[in-house]
Amino acid sequence: MAVDNGRIVEAASSHLLERKYSARRQISASGEIVLPGLVDPHTHLVFYGSREEEFRLRQEGASYLDILKKDGGIMETVSRTRESSQAELLSIAQHRLNIAMESGTTTLEIKSGYGLRLYDELKILRTIRTLQRRNPCRIATTFLGAHAIPPYMNQDEYARIVIEEMLPTVRQRNLADFCDVFCETGVFDPETSSKILRAAGRMSLRTKIHADQFTNSGGAKVANDVRAVSADHVVHSSISEMERMNKTEVTPVILPASSQSLLGRQYAPAKEFLSMGLPVALGSDFSPSNWAIGLLTVAAIAARELRMKAEEIIRGITINAARAIGMDHRIGSLSPGKSADVVVLRAPSYKWIGYTYGEGMVDKVLIAGKETVREGKLVN
Ligand SMILES: [Zn+2]
After folding, report:
1. Cα(9) to centroid of ligand 1, in Å?
2. What's the confidence (pLDDT) of residue 267?
3. Structural domain tally of the chain?
4. Does 316 share its domain with 349?
5. 77, 148, 274, 291: which has the fewest Cβ within 10 Å?
């Protein structure tokens, strides 16, 4: 691959490139595979604490929504995140981000959503913007004020705060690129989700939606109706709405690690979506209820639980993931003109993506042509 000024000039055989160009510096990937930098289109990277106790409850049979109703789950993370300072959140999130980059991720989306009130949502969004400034990787920032309904409030009261107070402030301070809503039975219904996303659209934020993770609750339909950039989870979405995404150009984002962490054995029918011609993207959904950061681990789960083939997975964690965050014109493939975001993996063939869990596989990572990871470790 020939790179100049952070961009890809040409990808071809070494033999041909060496004849055509003279390089100031060469990086060898001999015996390895070269892929576009990995793109994670769905993470909740910024929060305080962890919830391993809740995982134990799930192992004993409790469901995510059961735990949520008892003020456990997300509410526990919300309290701890509210109690923490921006500096604390930043240092925790930076550590997690380092792991992501050492796992081959060069671009990721990060959502707010553990504040559930203006002050703390802004604190989380500012933390994400600071990560963006301080790190070589690209970050898309999503405002997910409508992640859950805070205690002692009903859906309409809280939605009004999201629409009338939070969204205008987030927009005015330019703290987000996207707005997302958790549309689900018992959380935000389709009408309210659509109201929030349409309000965001009017403020020129692009939209995303947590759709049909636990039940067929109309999330995919909202995604199509509001022309969201992506519909995420889509485990229980109706097939006709999924088919409609070919027209509306909503990108489905599948999060198999999340399904696995919930121990529910319910996965989005990825192969069916692929056979409809949909550009299926894969993400980690890293969160306190799903502690998975690396996309090569997600690839292994997708290969086993969804039976996705290596080439389908690779598209899912590169170009389709880039499309799910509206960046496919800049990143996601090794095409001339795109940013030279590259991951070099110690593997004899691309078929190792999904075949292994990815341990020790990342050798080098380049972001905009700059070596960010060498021998699996971040370069200072
Ligand atoms: Zn999520």
Report:
1. 36
2. 96
3. 2
4. no
5. 291
Near ion ligand 1, which residues have CB within 5 Å? 285
Q: 261 C-alpha vs ligand 1 centroid, how far in Å?
A: 13
- Tens of pLDDT, residue by residue over 115-166, are 999 999 999 999 999 999 999 999 999 999 999 999 889 999 999 999 999 9
Q: Rounded to the nearest 10 degrees, what angle do helices 219-226 and 190-202 cross at?
A: 30
Distance between Cα 42 and ligand 1 center (Å): 6
State the distance from the centre of ligand 1 to the C-alpha of 110, rounded, in angstroms: 10
Instruction: Give the type of residue at 95.
Output: H
Strand partners, 339: 7
Are 28 and 99 in the same domain? no
Examine the pLDDT at 343 and tell me if it is beyond 80.
Answer: yes
Q: What distance in angstroms lies between residue 18's CA and the mean position of ligand 1's atoms?
A: 45
Query: Both 187 and 319 in a single domain?
Result: yes
Q: Is 217 left (phi over 0), alpha (psi -120 to 50) or beta?
A: alpha
Q: For residues 223-249, give the mean pLDDT.
A: 98
pLDDT one-digit tens code per residue, 73-99: 888 999 999 999 999 999 999 999 999
H-state helical runs in 306-375: 310-316, 319-324
CA of 290 to the centre of ligand 1 (A): 9
What is the pLDDT confidence band of residue 63, given thresholds at 50, 70 and 90? Answer: confident
Domain that holds residue 30: 2-34+336-378
Are 26 and 77 part of one and the same domain? no
| Angstrom distance (rounded) from CA 206 to CA 242 | 20
Output the CA 284–ligand 1 centroid distance in Å.
9
Mean pLDDT score, 37-62: 93
Cα of 89 from ligand 1 centre, angstroms:
18
